Amino acid sequence: MIISAFVLRNKENILIEVSDGGNGHVSSSFFSAYRYGSVPGGDLNEGNLALKSDKEKYAPYETAKIKLPNPKAGRVLVTIEQGRDMMDWFWIDPSKQSSEELVVDIPIKKDMVPNIYVTVSVIQQHDQTQNDRPIRMFGIIPLMIEDPDTKLEYNIRMAQDLTPNEDFEVEINTANGKKSQFTIAVVDEGLLSLTQFRTPNPWASFYKKIGLQVETYDVFSHVISANKNDVFQTFSIGGGIEMDYRESQTDLNDDTKRFKPVSMFKGPFMTDAKGKATVKFHMPNYNGAVRVMVVGTQNGSYGHADKTVPVKSDIIMQPTIPRILKPGDEFILPVALFKVNPLVKTAKFDLKITGPLEIIGDASKTVDFSNQEDSQIKFKVKVKEVVGQAKIRLEGSSGNIKVENETDIAITPAASRVYDKTTQDVGIGKNIDMKVSSIGLEGTNNATLDINIFPNMDFEHRLKWLIRYPYGCIEQTVSSVFPQLYLKKMGYYDEEESSEIDENINEGITRLQQFLLSDGSFSYWPGNSKASEWGTNYACHYLIEAENLGYSVPDYLYESAINGLNRQSSRRSGKLATRVNRVFILSLAKKRPISEMNLLMENELSKMNNAEKWMLAAAYHLSGVENVKDKIIDGASTETKEYEPFSYNFGSKYRDDAIILYCATLMDDMETAELMAKQVAKALSSTEYLSTQSAGYMLLALGNYFDKANIDFGGGKVISGEIKLADGSTVEFNENGRFRMPINNNFNKNISISLNDDSNVDKVYATLSWNGVPLKDEAPSVEKNLSLDVEYYDDEGRIINPETTKQGQTFYARFSVKNTSPASRASEIALVQILPSGWQIDNTRLKESVAPSWMNQWNINKEDYVDIRDDRAMWFFDVEGNIEYDFVVKLNAVSAGEYQLPATLVEAMYNPDYKAKNTSRKVYVEEMD
Question: Locate the Alpha-2-macroglobulin domain: which residues (predicted)?
Fold first, then answer.
């Protein structure tokens, strides 16, 4: 006898298993532990019945054997279930089997694929006292069933390895030699391993395990004098699918290199009658490994196959090129060379470029591989003062062996885009000259000429500024697309531009999903957990208008947002402006939040500004309560005031003008709407600063007014004339009230505009709007209500001069920002640093790195959101009082050369009076020793 003592600390089931350690004999028993004062029958799992099957899976027409302890008496109920269906059931008399195990035979049929559930209920006699088991015990077991006829096997035959820039063939064969339909994909194995992508398995999808949805009830647990308590359970039957997946990924390809990815797809195709097919591909310029994946079907059967094949050249060339280049850059282009084919002895390498690049020095190099397997060559390249796309092409040759490597790279400006415009009158029979400015680099300049019978009708510069706005919070995302809902209705956008507007609107709807929180509200930045009150209202307003105009808004997004807004209204949460705006938006969605509206009307009306009163009146109008609407409007006016800096709802006088215009239009008060429309149009047509919220709302309200008022922009007046371009070509126009044309050249040259005598107007207004990006920011440094200090440190925390760094050197940039204004708080601050092309950001967030200890004295990690891209880092935050905030980015000097370090900018996104900026400068990255 063996005695073993141990302490039970929790209420639990215990399995004791005893083995002889040699012959494989094993015996086991369950027992339960319970608290002092409880009874043994208190364990809900005591009625569990352990079932075993003789195999892991079965085929049709086999017989499954289910084994369980033989109760020797009583009755046994067996059911066969699948999904919601009871497929069969029968009773068994256990006394007819003398063995200790009761065996239940289950014939497997075709309609049981892919699985069934066998349940067994053992019901003991009520008066038995030979054991203390419950009156009813219950067990359930899934049986997996695979029909070989549903599985389709493919064989892939192809070359053992592939060569870049050459054609190759893939032969497909079905194992059963019958005709089938299939698709085939060839994808970069390194790209697939990043996401642990498995080759699609249609059989596993179409014949996946069916969950059990049959609900079983009985009253045995309530029978008086039964020995045991309730055994009525809910069972969760699962498998090892996830574990199987993880095990399949233990041998990942970890040494994949960073090449341009390959992704090719063809099909669907049909094999021939014998199940054979050949598919041809062309392998692009790529070195690494690809996975060939085949997925197919044949009369209800499904299959897949894959094969990983290396792709390698006789000589591998690996150039190191900056991710992005800027005009004026000069950089060293190193190329690592690896000899794969032993026949290569001497090779010549040529550098060829297209786009705004030029080679400095030799464009050809010769390498002797007789006594070496690898080598390195270098070229020097300069970027012209132009932006656009460039192509760097390397060609290698050794006898009949030819290799090539091609890289596309963007040339992007280092400065910010500049916008400007000018307007002149053109009298009948007169002509004027207007100079098309070239304020930007070649490839960045845009200009538009607008000729109109009405003044203050050019808003092109505002819309383009919104679309190109560099940040992307919830408010800016909505402001960039919201006005575009009504732009097409203004009547002067051509088909291509209208299509672009639709694309922008749909992209805006998609992007909003990144801000959506679980309660239906929207965060200020993607990924944030805190809701933005005004941003939530603004986003919901956009979704309602987009839905009403026929754009595709996902149901879950719309319902989640509107229902969330409705719940917030019921809780009466938020500041006054938010609450008023919320009931207005809910009324647009036909939700009629009357109780909240009445509460605002009775308790808060005297505290509201005029814009808020107009919104509440519009909410009552939309809810059909006209008498209350009229009462509110009688006590309101169209006067608006400037806001205090950093208002939580991004407010401004111009934004409130637009709100009144929007509400007046909605309530058919066209007299007030016309008055406000003139004010809004005049401000939009100016070059005065407008925030994204102001510009977005103004464009939206004006577009809505034009649509509702059905304004004839021509007024029945025909304008005709001629525009003479600098190259001598002419463009004639004969339009109803308005003519608009983009100007794609003639920069820094004059155009001539004349108005013909047959025009039935006295004069027109010609507005020339242009924008472009200069080579570098020539503006002087400035500090206005914000201070900015930038310093660079090495790994040990010593200050360094960033103008000269060594290739491979790691260092840190520290940006210190302080509010120097009398205001106690400055909100929605953006800090932006664009990097030289030769530097790269070491993204410590991805590595979860800890800051060095010498940074402990700094006031870091105070940002609300960080946006890190290939060529820049942006931080967004608020500053309290005159506390200094520090922002740090880790950098690597990667590519040797001479580059421009753009100016650092910190600014309040909604207040032009808060800004600080330093000047740009040259930096050098020296070659590694």
Answer: 262-353
Which pair of tokens denotes residue 748? Answer: 């820094």
pLDDT: which is higher, 450 or 136: 450
Query: Which spans in 549-652 are helix H?
Result: 555-571, 576-588, 594-603, 610-622, 626-634
pLDDT for 497 equals 74
Cα 877 to Cα 464: distance, rounded to the nearest angstrom: 26
The answer, yes or no, to whether residue 83 has pLDDT greater than 70, is: yes
The more confidently predicted of residues 404 and 709 is 404
Residue with the bigger pLDDT between 459 and 270: it is: 270
Greater confidence (728 vs 515) lies with: 515
Max mean pLDDT among 115-129, 444-458, 625-639 falls in 625-639
Sign of the C-alpha dihedral computed for residues 794, 798, 803 and 805 taken in this order: negative
**Which residues on neighbouring strands pair with residue 586, listed in sequence order?**
none
Stronger pLDDT, 53 or 255, i.e. the higher one? 53
Phi, psi for residue 220 in degrees, rounded to 5: -65, -30
Reply yes or no on whether the pLDDT at 39 is more than 90.
no
Alpha carbon distances (Å) from 67 to 101, 132, 256, 324: 6, 21, 50, 68
Residues 842 and 893: beta-carbon distance below 8 Å: no
Residue 91, token pair as written in the block: 């009773």
| Domains with residue ranges and CATH for the chain | 13-146+212-241 (2.60.40.1930), 149-198+253-311 (2.60.40.730), 332-411 (2.60.40.2310), 455-709 (1.50.10.20), 782-926 (2.60.40.690)
Question: What is the rounded CA–CA span in Å between residue 808 and residue 792?
Answer: 16
Position 749: which residue type? K
Confidence at residue 894, expressed as pLDDT on a 0 to 100 scale? 94
Coil, strand or helix: which one is 846? helix
- In the DSSP assignment, the letter for residue 36 is T
Residue 82 per-residue DSSP state = E
For residue 521, which of 579, 565, 587 has the smallest C-alpha distance? 565
Contacts of 60 (CB under 8 A, 6+ apart): 108, 109, 110, 112, 113, 145, 147
Supply 304's token pair. Answer: 């897949």
Give exposure, 838-864, as e/b (b: 16+ Cβ within 10 Å): bbbbeeeeeeeeeeeeebeeeeeeebb
- The CA dihedral of 878, 879, 881, 882, to the nearest 10 degrees, is -170
> In the structure encoding, which two tokens stand for residue 380, read together?
């020097």
Q: By three-state DSSP, how is residue 710 classified? A: coil
Angle of the 474-481 helix axis to the 692-709 helix axis, nearest 10: 30
Return the pLDDT at 742: 87
pLDDT of residue 59: 95
| Whether pLDDT at 832 is above 60 | yes
Residue 340 has pLDDT above 80, yes or no: yes
Write out the E strands in 820-881: 825-834, 839-841, 865-868, 872-880
Q: Which of 184-193, 279-288, 417-426, 607-616 has the lowest mean pLDDT?
A: 417-426
* Phi (first) and psi of residue 736, to 5 degrees: -90, 90
Q: Cis (ω within 30 of 0) for the bond into 114?
A: yes
CA atoms of 843 and 848, how far apart (whole Å)? 9
- Structural contact between residues 815 and 904, judged by C-beta atoms closer than 8 angstroms: yes
Three-state secondary structure string covering 256-314: CCCCCCCEEEEEEEECCCCCEEEEEEECCCCCEEEEEEEEEEECCEEEEEEEEEEECCC
How many other C-beta atoms lie within 10 A of the C-beta of residue 667? Answer: 20
For 192, phi and psi rounded to 5 degrees? -65, -35
Residue 674 phi/psi, 5-degree rounding, is -65, -40
Closest CA to 763 of 454, 384, 333, 553: 454
Q: Out of 106-110, 419-423, 545-549, 839-843, which region has the weakest mean confidence (pLDDT)?
A: 419-423
